[in-house]
């Protein structure tokens, strides 16, 4: 489902196989486990997430939902803590969008601090409008946090626009566009290494990320420290 | 610590001396005292305030040596004073222009953004939120303020979560700074030009202050003494 590879201080999480990497209970659980590994390993200072094949992730495993009595709402419920894991991960995160990222798959991508994407193929696509599904609240909160240009947000959510890497860079969703999947991963790893090289305190990084996205962290039920705790931390560092 | 002078209808608040203009209780109190004279009295219409600094630095943030020498129970004084200073700028009954004549770092950046307009020196100096690099977290009012003043995701992420050193040109491209100019004098002159332009359009400063507090209502809620949170 996914593999972890360590390169120096960077952990590379790859969604494996030539399929659509749809988020069902199995893959969600593997991803959360991988993120727990990243969190607990003191030698890991940055994360890159990439995909094999034509897809980064094509969203929720709707086939699983159809065959299960629990349905889509279960998957929506299971993906939320996965997104929360990323938003609370105490290190910089870089998504290497190596293929199509749709719906929950696009959410997985933009939940990273930096988004690198191939420009030769693949689109970002919030398909919900096209397939008649609602957005979970936390999807919209994540999009409002990460897509702050109003017309871009409108095109993504109310037009279900398929956005290439190049257009996504112009519109502020993607940070860097690369020429191929392998170049996207290589550049993402390079960025992750640079970020790891800044030697930031992990707890401070996590705290500042929550400060950058306070509404999102409330939506994902990630607790923020009180001012008193922040002041105690400050005093302890003098 | 600072001087307040008047040039025609423009007030010029200068952080004096060649040092880093770091925020300790003395400097913050002096700034607040200077602003209080503008908050309380009635003014001629079409006034404006410019804040600038002498030397290489605009402000390099909180005075860590003061903090280290003060008992822990007093540390929050400078944070509370900065909070009060931001509330003063939000309440000022005239347009405000920051002339970033030198490096601005950490809490110094907060002072910059507390203004309506920013003119920054382009041949030297950075706008640098250094907190991540030095290992400091944000208290709530600070977080709310930066979220309201820098709404663009990538810019806010780069400034706060990457501790980027931003030049005047980049800051302009990213919407943090309005104009860039050469040299300290050039920056102040450009700030004076901008201040005159804006002052000409604002005859009722108190109405301006009301609108500004409404525009940044979440910040106002967190920094004002009246509505403020007591964290």
UniProtKB/TrEMBL annotation, chain A:
Please list the reactions this protein catalyses.
Answer: a (3Z)-enoyl-CoA = a 4-saturated (2E)-enoyl-CoA; a (3E)-enoyl-CoA = a 4-saturated (2E)-enoyl-CoA
Record family assignment: Belongs to the enoyl-CoA hydratase/isomerase family.
Taxonomy of the source species: Eukaryota, Viridiplantae, Streptophyta, Embryophyta, Tracheophyta
Q: In which pathway does it act?
A: Lipid metabolism; fatty acid beta-oxidation
Please, which domain of life does this record's source organism belong to?
Answer: Eukaryota
> Matching PANTHER family, A to Z?
ENOYL-COA HYDRATASE-RELATED, ENOYL-COA HYDRATASE_ISOMERASE FAMILY PROTEIN
Enzyme Commission number:
5.3.3.8
Molecular function per GO:
delta(3)-delta(2)-enoyl-CoA isomerase activity
Q: What is this protein called?
A: Delta(3)-Delta(2)-enoyl-CoA isomerase
Per the UniProt entry, what species is this protein from, by scientific name?
Rhynchospora pubera
GO biological process terms held by the UniProt record: fatty acid beta-oxidation
Concerning Gene3D superfamilies, the annotation shows: 2-enoyl-CoA Hydratase, Chain A, domain 1
GO cellular component terms listed in the entry, alphabetical order:
peroxisome
Q: Which UniProt keywords apply?
A: Isomerase, Lipid metabolism
- Cross-referenced InterPro entries: ClpP/crotonase-like_dom_sf, Enoyl-CoA_hydra/iso
UniProtKB/TrEMBL annotation, chain B:
- Reading the lineage from the top rank, the first entry is Eukaryota
User: Which InterPro entries does this chain map to?
Assistant: ClpP/crotonase-like_dom_sf, Enoyl-CoA_hydra/iso
Q: Which GO terms describe its cellular component?
A: peroxisome
Root EC class = isomerase
Q: Annotated Gene Ontology MF terms? A: delta(3)-delta(2)-enoyl-CoA isomerase activity
CDD domains found in the cross-reference section: crotonase-like (cd06558)
Annotated EC: 5.3.3.8
Q: Which reaction does it catalyse?
A: a (3E)-enoyl-CoA = a 4-saturated (2E)-enoyl-CoA; a (3Z)-enoyl-CoA = a 4-saturated (2E)-enoyl-CoA
Mind listing the GO biological process terms from this record? fatty acid beta-oxidation
The answer to whether UniProt assigns keyword Protease to this entry is no
UniProt pathway annotation: Lipid metabolism; fatty acid beta-oxidation
Q: Does the keyword Lipid metabolism apply?
A: yes
What name does the UniProt record give this protein? Delta(3)-Delta(2)-enoyl-CoA isomerase
Give the species this sequence originates from: Rhynchospora pubera
Q: What is the lineage of its organism?
A: Eukaryota, Viridiplantae, Streptophyta, Embryophyta, Tracheophyta
């Amino acid at each position: 489902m996914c593999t972890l590879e360590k390169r120096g201080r960077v952990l590379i999480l790859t969604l494996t196989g030539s399929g659509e990497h749809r988020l069902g209970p199995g893959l969600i659980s593997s991803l959360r486990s991988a993120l727990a590994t990243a969190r607990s390993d003191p030698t890991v200072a940055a994360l890159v997430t990439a995909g094999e094949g034509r897809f980064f992730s094509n969203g929720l495993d709707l086939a699983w939902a159809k065959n299960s009595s629990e349905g889509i709402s279960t998957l929506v419920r299971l993906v939320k803590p996965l997104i929360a894991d990323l938003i609370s991960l105490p290190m910089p995160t870089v998504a290497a969008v190596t293929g199509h990222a749709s719906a929950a798959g696009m959410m997985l991508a933009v939940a990273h601090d930096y988004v690198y994407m191939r420009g030769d193929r693949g689109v970002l696509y919030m398909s919900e409008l096209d397939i008649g599904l609602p957005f979970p609240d936390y999807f919209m909160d994540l999009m409002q946090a990460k897509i702050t240009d109003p017309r871009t947000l409108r095109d993504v959510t109310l037009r279900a626009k398929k956005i290439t890497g190049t257009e996504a860079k112009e519109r502020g969703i993607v940070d860097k566009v690369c020429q191929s999947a392998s170049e996207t991963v290589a550049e993402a790893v390079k960025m992750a290494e640079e970020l790891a090289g800044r030697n930031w305190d992990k707890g401070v990084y996590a705290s500042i990320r929550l400060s950058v996205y306070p509404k999102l962290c409330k939506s994902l039920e990630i607790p923020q420290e009180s001012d008193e705790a922040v002041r105690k931390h400050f005093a302890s560092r003098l | 610590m600072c001087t307040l002078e008047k040039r025609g209808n423009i007030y010029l608040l200068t952080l004096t001396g060649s040092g880093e203009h770091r925020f300790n209780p003395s400097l913050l109190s002096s700034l607040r005292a200077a602003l209080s004279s503008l908050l309380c009295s009635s003014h001629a219409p079409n006034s404006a305030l410019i804040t600038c600094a002498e030397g290489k630095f605009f402000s390099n943030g909180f005075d860590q040596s003061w903090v280290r020498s003060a008992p822990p129970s007093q540390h929050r004084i400078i944070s509370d004073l900065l909070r009060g200073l931001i509330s003063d700028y939000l309440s000022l009954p005239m347009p405000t222009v920051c002339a970033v004549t030198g490096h601005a770092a950490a809490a110094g950046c907060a002072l910059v953004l507390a203004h309506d307009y920013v003119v920054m020196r382009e041949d030297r100096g950075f706008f640098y939120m250094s907190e991540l690099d030095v290992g400091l977290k944000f208290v709530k009012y600070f977080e709310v303020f930066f979220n309201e003043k820098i709404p663009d995701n990538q810019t806010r992420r780069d400034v706060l979560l990457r501790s980027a050193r931003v030049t005047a040109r980049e800051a302009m491209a990213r919407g943090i700074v309005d104009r860039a100019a050469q040299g300290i004098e050039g920056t102040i002159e450009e700030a004076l030009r901008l201040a005159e332009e804006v002052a000409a359009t604002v005859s009722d400063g108190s109405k301006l202050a009301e609108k500004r507090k409404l525009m940044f209502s979440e910040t106002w809620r967190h920094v004002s003494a009246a509505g403020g949170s007591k964290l």
